[in-house]
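call fold(seq) -> tokens
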Amino acid sequence: MATVVPTAMTVPEVMAALKVGRSTVYDLIRSKALPSFTVGNRRRFDAADVAAFMRTRIEENN
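ret:
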């Protein structure tokens, strides 16, 4: 059965998807490598942007 990926991901969800720590996620935000947006004072990521980030990194390493 396929895993359902939410449209908007939280910082902990991105951390889990990329297998990185919180500071790495915020470094990616600061460097504009991973687009994000805020809802109130909470950071969110479009799941498609996270997937595109992962695809780009995979292509760069092949």
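The two ends are 29 Å apart (CA to CA).
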